[in-house]
């Protein structure tokens, strides 16, 4: 009995951990109540890339939340009339329901070293890097495994 329990504990601690999404900031792709899996080695091995959904410790309240990585260090982020630009190139966002977003403007802002810029797919309700700034890579717990990457 002890060995299977320890094996399961090791998997959850170092490999994959289930997580229940508690808010609608990533809807419609990942609605509140969804169960996703956080792949922890992605953060430890430096595998975080633009477009990935990541779990991290919120700098606002310390809870675990998920958002999409939009830009890495040295990249410039701007939102003009609800359209996302990274390094002055429009980014295709098929996972964002643009009909739910009023005209939004942000930036431009350059992502500092050792940080990433994260946004929720549901921009109207998401608290993200537009509010708390670029996220330290050290806050990322892992990448989120879903069918909506």
Automatic annotation (TrEMBL):
The record's annotation in InterPro entries points to: LexA/Signal_pep-like_sf, Pept_S26A_signal_pept_1, Pept_S26A_signal_pept_1_CS, Peptidase_S26
Q: Which residues form the Peptidase S26 domain?
A: 2-144
Q: What is its main location?
A: membrane
According to its UniProt record, which reaction does this protein catalyse?
Cleavage of hydrophobic, N-terminal signal or leader sequences from secreted and periplasmic proteins
Q: Report the Pfam families cross-referenced here.
A: Peptidase_S26
Record keyword Transferase present: no
**Protein origin, superkingdom:** Bacteria
Question: Topology with regard to the membrane?
Answer: Single-pass type II membrane protein
Q: Which UniProt keywords apply?
A: Hydrolase, Protease
Instruction: Give the residue range of the signal peptide.
Output: none
**Which GO cellular component terms, listed alphabetically, does the Swiss-Prot or TrEMBL entry include?**
plasma membrane
The residues responsible for catalysis, as annotated, are 25, 67
GO terms assigned for molecular function: serine-type endopeptidase activity; signal peptidase activity
Biological process GO terms, please? Answer: signal peptide processing
Please name the NCBIfam families in this protein's record. sigpep_I_bact
| Family indicated by similarity | Belongs to the peptidase S26 family.
Q: Please state what the protein is called.
A: Signal peptidase I
